[in-house]
Every structure is written in C-alpha cells, then in structure tokens.
Design a protein that fits this description.
Distance between the termini: 57 Å
Helix content: 10-25%
Radius of gyration: 23 Å
Number of domains: 3
Oligomer: single chain
Shape: globular
Bound molecules: flavin-adenine dinucleotide
Mean pLDDT: 97
CATH architecture of the largest domain: 3-Layer(bba) Sandwich
Low-confidence stretches: none
CATH topology of the largest domain: FAD/NAD(P)-binding domain
Number of strands: 25
CATH class of the largest domain: Alpha Beta
Length: 457
C-alpha cells in the first residue's frame, strides 16, 4: 500500500489517477490537488464551441471530482499546491484558503503548462490570476474552460459589438480559432512572425495548402509580421506589428505554452525549456517523484532523444505509465512521434515525426518523396478525392523520419501507420513492399503510400 499524491488533475493527472484506481485501487491511497474548479477540459473543443460547430460545452469534460472520488481518491479542487518539501515528502496546498500539509510516499507532478506571454507592449496577465486574465480587456489567453467561456460571453455582449479579431500565433490553436471567428462572420486577422502557418508540423508545400485555404475562406493573413504592441484605453483598440497597425476589438494570444514547473523549486532536473526531465518510467531526478503531461519531457523516437511535445495524447499516455510505476508495477513508455492533426474549413491535415526542415535542423540527411493521387481507383466516380502525402526519410539509413498528409476527406488513419513506422525504425523501402490491401471502395491497387515509397530515390 502506497500513499500517492497527484498535483494537477487535468488530462495527465486524471489519467494517472484512473490508472492507479482502476488497476490497483485497493492497494493505494490516492490524494489529488487541483487549483482549478474543473478537470479534464478538452481544449481541442474550444474552437468548435466558440465557432458554434458544437452546441455547447457539456461534452468537453470526461471526469470530475465525483468520478475520481467514486473510485476511491480524495480530491481537493480549487486548491493550489504552493510548495513541496522533497526531503520531508510533503506537499503544502491552500485548501479553502487555509494551509494544508499532505504527506506522500509517491508524488506525481501533473501541473501542465501555461500560455507563453510574448514580449509585446500591453500584453500582461493580471498578477496571481490562475485563469490567465489579461490586464487589458478583450485581450485573451486561451487555455482553460474559463477562457473559452469569457470569449463566448464577450462575443455575445451586444453592447461591446466585437467585430474585428486578431489572432496572434498561427500554430494549430491559432488557426483553429481563426476559423471559429470566421464562422461567426467576424473580420479575422491571423498574425505570425513566421511567413507561414503550422510551421512546426508541415513543410512549406503542405502548409501553403492551409494558407490558401484560410485565404479562400476570407481570413486576412499577416504572416511574417512581429507583433510589437497591443494598445487601447483599458480595452483592446489596436494591434501594432513591425509592418502595420490594425484597429481591432479583441486579440487572442496563442503563441504556445511553457511547462509549469515552479513547484520543482530548482531541485528537480529540467530540460532546456524548463520541463521536468523524466526517463521512460516518467521518473524525475528525485526518487519517488514522477512528472507527466505538459510539465514533463517526452522521449521522441523521431530524433532518438528527449524532447518537449505538449499534447493531450502524450499527457494521457504518460499518466498511464506513471500510474503503473507509482503503484509499483514497472512499465516504460514507448516514446512518441508528435503525431497531430487539424481540420479547417474541410481541409484535413495530419502529420507525425519530423518535417524535412526539422530533420535538417536535427542533423539528419533527409530526403523526401511526395505524391498527390486519388484515394480510390479511377473508375470510382463518386467520393473519390485527392490525397497529398509527403514522406521524409534519412538518405543514409533510409529510416522513415516523418510523414505529412492532406485531403478534403478523412485520411487521418493513414498517419498512425507512419507513427508506428517511425517508432519501429522502418525503412522507406519496406513501405514500398508493405502488404496494403486493395478494394476500390477504399483505395487503389497500388496505394499512394506504396507509390510514394517506390518513387523514393
Ligand atoms: C485550445 C487548445 C486546444 C488543444 N487541442 C489539442 C488537440 O487537439 N490535441 C491534443 O493532443 N492536444 C491539444 N491541446 C493540448 C492539450 O490540451 C495539453 O497538452 C493538455 O492539456 C496537457 O494536459 P496536462 O494535464 O499535462 O496539463 P494541463 O492541461 O495544463 O493541466 C494541468 C493541471 O494542473 C493544475 N495545476 C497546475 N498547477 C497547480 C498547482 N500548483 N496546484 C494544483 N494544481 C495545479 C491545473 O489547474 C490543471 O488542471 C490543446 C490545448 C489547448 C489550450
């Protein structure tokens, strides 16, 4: 029997608690602290909710205090952990405004990430605000359920009449939110310092497909512009970049997240971006202390090294691994490839592993093979659509390093195979001869995956 304390109960924390209680409930005492009033909010639903593609927020949660307590945990909500004594093995939290000290035998840190505050004049988070409330009205950070609620309330406020919205950051969250506001018929400007969108996940040829898609749907793109200031008298009135000044009513800052690791207090080893450094068992540098999700590193199979990839999918898996290990049943993570997807105005894109650009940066000698082909046999007259596939592989070892796909139908399942290929170090030549079934309803006798692999030099 171990006493396991979990700090943070969003995706990673909840996953670890579920793993412990579903598998070894009677053997362990589990105590959970979260500073928020809700847990398990699926941020991926934020843009869908704001853009009215779903009717409400009810389905965006899959766990709560009651669920975890019904399995046997003790859960303290609205209770920030303020410090941890790693020698005495105690955590100190504020529960109902009073100091509460809890001892632990095993500790799981799942404190996640916080929005990056870029050096922009006028952009600041109110001191002590756990909900990332900005000092300037209508400047919004997007992380929590409450942030989505605030945006929706403001948009519904007729007195404010918010029509012109600037979204800063053209990563997947910024692009999704730009689409959401456009669906509400707002005048949307998407700004990024880089001269393209989704730069971390796609090479230029594929990201240009998304760029065109955004433009075709009426979003003004201000790529290659650096935001210098957000101005206004108490509330947002203007956004100023190095190239232009635009009058706007709301600014969304979506430039990324940094690991929330203050509780490490300099005692836990950290990665270059401050994330808790963990091994494949999710163990930190201090015995009996695990870290999971956005506050921790991952093992990245595409670079064969430690990396930081903040995704809910990684949070869930790392939570499972830490849950088993903290309960005394040793397992190791398989590592990750950073697999991801996005669907904007009907254009679906998925990728995994390294882009060609990134592969060069990480010191590989990358080559690529790319194809745009019909999904199904040419005689299939209906529901046949184009798919673009780009595979990145290493010229020297021929091992697959990454893949990117785009289509106007759901091709997402294809990327899972590439994820496994990267994990298992499969060569491009083996993909050429892979047993891929054929049925005209689904694909071609020689699928685009085989064709691309065969064409690889
Ligand atoms: C808008 C948006 C869209 C996204 N879309 C996707 C997507 O489509 N797919 C995907 O895979 N990922 C997506 N993500 C990323 C995903 O949400 C994160 O990777 C995930 O939330 C990480 O989970 P986590 O539990 O590690 O951290 P977090 O979600 O950051 O949760 C950390 C928890 O710790 C608590 N906490 C922090 N400090 C303390 C403390 N001192 N004391 C007590 N509690 C504390 C917090 O209240 C919080 O509940 C999206 C994120 C956002 C914001």
């Amino acid at each position: 029997m171990s006493k396991i304390v979990v700090v943070g109960a969003n995706h990673a924390g909840t996953s670890s608690v579920n793993t412990i209680l579903d598998n070894y409930g009677s053997e362990n005492e589990v105590v959970v602290f979260d500073q928020n009033s809700n847990i398990s909010f699926l941020g991926c639903g934020m843009a869908l909710w704001i853009g009215k593609q779903i009717s409400g927020s009810e389905g965006l949660f899959y766990a709560d205090k009651e669920l975890l307590e019904s399995k046997g945990a003790k859960v303290y909500m609205n209770s920030p952990v303020t410090s941890i004594d790693y020698d005495a093995k105690t955590v100190t939290a504020l529960v109902d405004g009073k100091e509460h000290v809890e001892s632990y035998e095993k500790l799981i840190l799942a404190t996640g990430s916080t929005p990056i505050l870029p050096p922009i004049e006028g952009a600041a988070i109110k001191e002590g605000s756990l909900e990332f409330e900005a000092t300037l009205e209508n400047l919004q950070f997007v992380k929590l359920f409450q942030n989505a609620e605030q945006v929706i309330e403001k948009l519904q406020d007729k007195a404010q009449n918010l029509e012109r919205i600037a979204v800063v950051g053209a990563g997947y969250i910024g692009v999704e939110l730009a689409e959401a506001f456009q669906r509400l018929n707002k005048k949307v400007t998407l700004i990024d310092v880089v001269d393209t969108c989704l730069a971390g996940y796609y090479d230029r040829d594929l990201s240009d497909m998304m760029r065109q898609n955004l433009e075709d749907n009426g979003i003004e793109l201000a790529f290659g512009e650096t935001v210098k200031a957000i101005e206004g008298d108490g509330k947002v009135e203007r956004i100023v970049t190095d190239k232009a000044s635009r009058d706007v009513d709301m600014v969304i800052l979506a430039v990324g997240f940094r690991p929330n690791t203050g509780l490490g207090n300099g005692q836990l080893e950290t990665f270059r971006n401050g994330a808790f450094l963990v091994n494949k068992k999710q163990e930190t540098s201090i015995p009996d202390v695990y870290a999971i999700g956005d506050c921790a590193t991952v093992y990245d199979n595409s670079i064969n090294d430690t990396n930081y990839i903040a995704l809910a999918s990684n949070a869930l898996r790392s939570g499972m691994v830490a849950g088993h290990n903290a309960a005394g049943h040793e397992i190791e993570s398989l590592g990750v490839q950073g697999s991801n997807g996005i669907s904007i105005f009907g254009l679906n894109m998925v990728s995994t592993g390294l882009t060609e650009e990134k592969a060069k940066r990480f010191g590989f000698n990358p080559a690529t093979t790319e194809i745009t082909d019909q999904q199904k046999a040419a005689f299939m007259e209906h529901g046949n659509y184009d798919v673009t596939l780009k595979i990145v592989y290493d010229k020297d070892t021929r091992v697959v390093l990454g893949a990117q796909m785009a289509a106007r139908e759901d091709i997402s399942m294809g990327i899972h195979m590439f994820s496994l290929a990267i994990q298992e170090k499969v060569t491009i030549d083996r993909l050429a001869l892979l047993d891929l079934f054929f049925l005209p309803h689904f694909n071609q006798p020689l699928s685009y995956i085989a064709k691309a692999a065969i064409a690889a030099e």
